[in-house]
Design brief:
The structure is a homodimer. By secondary structure, chain A is an alpha/beta fold. Helix content of chain A is 43%, strand content 20%. The first copy, chain A, has helices spanning 2-6, 44-62, 100-108, 117-128, 187-191, 193-205, 210-216, 225-234, 237-261, 271-275, 277-291, 310-325, and strands spanning 8-14, 18-24, 30-37, 69-76, 80-81, 86-88, 97-98, 112-116, 136-142, 146-152, 155-156, 265-268, 301-304. The longest helix of chain A is centred in the last third of the chain and has 25 residues, at 237-261.
Chain lengths: 330, 330
């Protein structure tokens, strides 16, 4: 146990647009951090160099030497081989397969744990946020897509060769809008921030959403989560309808997840939820309760994530601790 | 470890129509058994007496004294509180809540483990049958309904307060046939043996299935799994079409389960599959492969159960061992 208290941890959150590293003490108090743009288009070699640089700059910011680090945890987008620590060609990086664990272990000479970024975020909420200590947590994070993750009995639920809990690809509308995965009517094609922004842009074009029209015109890239929240406050009723439809679809899809995995707690996170936590928690809960079978009614809670952007980086660091110390850290 | 080798186990499979108990040695070789009708309509008091009687008669058949028994495992229909060992009013018994564990522990003065009957069957296949030793097994058992269960890292996957993996209630046909759960178009309303028999009875009425018409007329209760298999062999093409449609729907629903839990192995069991294992394994596999996302392709196997009716009773006994001996028995 002495080792744990003198050792520090690094968390890393690798996103499609930005990367963030934080250094933590043995109690997971942050000591320093660094953030850079990912610039994924410059390729994998450059990307890996930026990752290393971000870790080194975070160490400098924290005034911590790498020799004090007990492990590095890194959350990465897309499918991951958790055993080997390999990222399996996530579409929003375009780097092909990357042996992340091997690469960082060689460079920093310390243990490295690699997880899916959503799994890392859900693990963060399980250890430090809104889902502490329960047996089963499902995380749902609507963003460009809709990420899902599960913590079961203290560990990330592992699939046969990659992560699982693909909530974004549950079919919700037969013959619905085309999804990035090639199917139609998947949850993320209907209820992600991207899907919501696209619907709102159309309403803006039609003149139904005057606040949005003024704030962002009809460019869906400019219709952020905060724009949607502000538009609802300002009285753009159609925006509220569109956002609530998305929440309802998430709740309906969740009913199927509850029948499958029966979580104690469902954590909703990501920018869209952060901008309107009450609306999402209420509407998702109502829709899920309406759809679950009798035996599952009131068997779960729906809560908003508490850690915001920190969930991923903190969860990754805590996952590294879990992998290095095993059950002794619980 | 010495204790394990001198101790024997009892497995019990409580069904809606019959109950079966077997006594096993420490290596799970069967030593004796007893079987009775459940007669659920006579009520819970009589039912519990018949359960005790069946256990005692199995011990007599095995020439084993109860003092040699290290534990009793019992698989029961419907939702179960596994922690407390309480069966939660399964519709096909109509007994209300039954504190099965407490009751049997008092009577036989030995540890009792209670599990859902499908979970027990999947655990049996995991320990002794067609899914030995993999990290994640999903079991799908089409019968009157369609039961589902999951073994994850050596244990039954537990829901927040009862079992989970309700594969039978995945929606597969929007606005489809009414399901016993109150929803429409659930997998079991479309692809259970009962659903298949109902479709076949209709074809028989229309004169499209001459073998079935001769063998069973139009009474769906007389159209058993073996009738269906024999009809296909005899050339009733419409029967083959109906059965293969059911297998396809199971595969389609399974794709969603694979996206959620990502099993290494899917075990198909129950009478319908036993009568036509090759057809089911092939058609379920094809439909599931067609529907899963690229990252999940070839990530799972589909196999037929190997233990038949024994899976449940053997799995229940092995689950009792697991609960009594914990990880030491693995």
């Amino acid at each position: 146990m002495a080792a744990e208290q003198t050792h520090k941890w690094i968390g890393f959150d690798l996103g499609g647009t930005k990367m963030l590293s934080k250094v933590y003490d043995s109690k997971f108090k942050p000591l320093g951090s660094n953030r850079k743009k990912t610039k994924a288009h410059l390729g994998v070699k450059s990307g890996l160099e930026r990752i290393s640089e971000t870790i080194r700059d975070a160490l400098t910011d924290a005034k911590v030497d790498i020799s004090e680090i007990a492990g590095i945890g890194i959350g990465c987008p897309g499918p991951i081989d958790m055993e080997k620590g390999v990222i399996l060609d996530p579409p929003n990086l375009g780097w092909g397969e990357v042996p992340m664990k091997k690469r960082l272990q060689q460079e920093f000479d310390c243990p490295v744990a690699v997880a899916n970024d959503v799994d890392a975020g859900v693990f963060g909420e399980y250890r430090f946020g809104s889902a502490k200590g329960v047996r089963t947590v499902i995380g749902v994070f609507p963003g460009t897509g809709i990420g899902g993750g599960c913590i079961y009995e203290g560990s990330i639920l592992r699939g046969s060769r990659c992560s699982c809990v693909e909530i974004g690809h549950i079919p919700v509308i037969p013959d619905g809008p085309l999804c990035g995965c090639g199917q139609r009517g998947c949850l993320e094609a209907v209820a992600s921030r991207l899907a919501v922004s696209a619907s709102v842009a159309r309403s803006s074009y039609r003149g139904e959403a005057p606040f949005v029209q003024k704030a962002a015109g009809t460019d869906l890239s400019l219709i952020k989560s905060s724009t949607l929240a502000d538009a609802i406050k300002a009285g753009d009723e159609v925006v509220e309808q569109i956002v609530r439809d998305a929440a309802r679809h998430i709740g309906t899809a969740l009913a199927g997840v509850i029948h499958m995995i029966s979580p104690d707690v469902v954590v909703l996170g990501g920018g869209l939820v952060e901008a309107m936590p009450k609306l999402f928690v209420r509407d998702v809960m109502t829709a899920a309760q309406d759809r679950v079978m009798f035996a599952y009614q009131d068997s779960f809670k729906v809560v908003a994530a508490e850690l915001g952007d920190d969930a991923g980086v903190l969860g990754a660091a805590a996952w590294a601790e879990k992998m290095v110390n095993g059950m002794s850290s619980e």
